[in-house]
Amino acid sequence: MGGPAPDPVFVLRGAESPVTAVTFLNVDATEGQRDKYIAAGTQDGKILLWNLKTKCKTTEWVAHAGSSIHWLHSESPDILWSLGRSDSVKAWNIHSSPAAVSTYPVVDYLGFSSSHIIQVNSNTKLLSLPGPSQEGVTVWDIDKNFKISTLVPPDVKAFGSMMQPRWMKIQDVIILGVLYESGHIALWDWANSKILSQHQVTENPMCFTFDKSSQTGIIGTAAEKIYVFSIQNNLNISIVKELSIINAGISSCVIRPDGKLFVTGGWDSRIRFFSSKKCKPLAVLMYHKKTVECIAYSKDNIEELGGGFILAAGSSDKSVSLWNIFN
Question: Where are the WD repeats (predicted)?
């Protein structure tokens, strides 16, 4: 990891409370053009938008009154998804001032889980969201506005609270992976409410993500450990690598869209980069003053910030840093 650490290419300010979720989105502009934006969700329930061309904040609204925002997602222009803790998942039309176009309630879940969306085909889009209860996950068909299933482990005491759901594609089969407080990862047949495979990876997990091209994933923990795991075609889960870091606590993790890097955000305010192939540390960035609560990669090239995949990091210090590194 030789050489001086780089500075962010830009820092977005204007949030009045800790930034707890962040994502990139495209917004339709004039003459068929699309502008690139950053969306940030905050602990006080607000969503803020910045135009990446002008670097200016353009919009701010209360999306989840009284609830911190723990997930933002955008897979199509103008539509932004948000999850408010113990509140609901909402889809927002950014061109409608903005307006919530659909709402999915979170029932009796008090944890800090995110949600996840996957496009199965042109007619089916699936949403997983926390609840009911601390252990459950609910699966919705968004296009039909139909609740498909509720997934609760048969032994809830052994698994503990649900930490995070994530859609996975294994040999073209859509599976829902769910991380639990006990360190179990369960691979669910979501249509039939049945666990296909499970493995206890670690204790005190905080976050996880998965790369479908390599069939490997990352788990961040409350300890000084990061785990890399793989899922075989027979759905067996195994640990590939156990990485040690200096200070305890990983709040967020993400794999770059090309699969070459993975990145973690820490309680110690550090952003850590690793090579995916060899699981080697590449850089530690120390810009933020407080916990890096959330990180997200752009899905494509961002010319406005020098080209390549751009990393956004939101922090409890109320700022969002933007990084162009290893491109």
Answer: 285-327
